[in-house]
Amino acid sequence: MSVEYPLSQRPSAATKLRRALEDPNAFLMLPGVYDGFSARIALEVGFDGLYMTGAGSTASVIGHADLGLLTQTQMRTHAEMIASIAALPCYQNSPLPLVSDADTGYGGPIMIARTVQQYAQSGVAGLHIEDQVQTKRCGHLAGKELVDKATFVTRIRAAVQARQRIGSDIVIIARTDSLQSLGYDEAIGRLKVAREAGADVAFFEGMTSKEQAKKLVEDLAPMPCLMNMVDSGVTPSMTADEIKELGYKIMIVPFAAVAPAYNAIKVEMETLKKTGALSSSSKTVTPHKVFRVCGVEDSMTIDAEAGGKSFSGGID
Length: 316
Prior knowledge:
By secondary structure, this protein is α/β, with parallel strands linked by helices. Helices cover 46% and strands 11% of the residues. β3, α5 (109-121) and β4 (126-130) form a beta-alpha-beta unit. The radius of gyration is 20 Å and the shape is globular. It starts with 12 loop residues before the first helix and ends in an 11-residue tail after the last helix.
């Protein structure tokens, strides 16, 4: 992921993701982001890619639990905004790949094909489609309802054919939530038929042990596998090194921004309500700091290079 390319030869984010999956030494740890600010912070830290969490996006956009309430248009628009940030030249090796939740694909084959086309045109590098019914819920909640295997395969096939039809490198990730209700053998069976339908990566949601995680990689080899690391969920906590050692190619951490944001914001809100002022630690984050994280200096450079005078007096 650290190869430098001349601007004229720079591959797309989807091509970079696909090349990383083919590289036997590559491993991608993708922090979950849910808005432009969390994406900016992750990129400031230096991650090589991002994951757009559906749960976090739903909480951020409409303030609701992850029950499949965001529409395809809302999710695509949100993903496009984050992908555009990851493609800014101020970040090393941009465009950086964004993997995005695409829920159930938002309908039948025609809608799924449109979803893939829209996500690809929006700069998304990879997306995952699952086997829950359309009124889905977070993978770490109980009581999930599933479509049958044939319907799941139809979803994946529609996604793969759409990718081929538009000549895109966008990576199709097949996700199954069937472990909870149908067991390991059925879940593996679903991922195997998804592989036969052309899926690029396997996403086995809700695994319950490290032994199970290891067996999955062995049973699906050489298909690349994705680990969804949701701390305090049903999957035991593991580090990136442990997950890589098990043979996984991608690790997504959906709550990497959501959990600390909740904790920090709640503490500050409680302090403000109790004392009438923010804590001393919050006062160190000035408007200038926030604006610089969000690229104000790049905007100033663009203006100056074009002969503009908007920032001739600076911002300090």
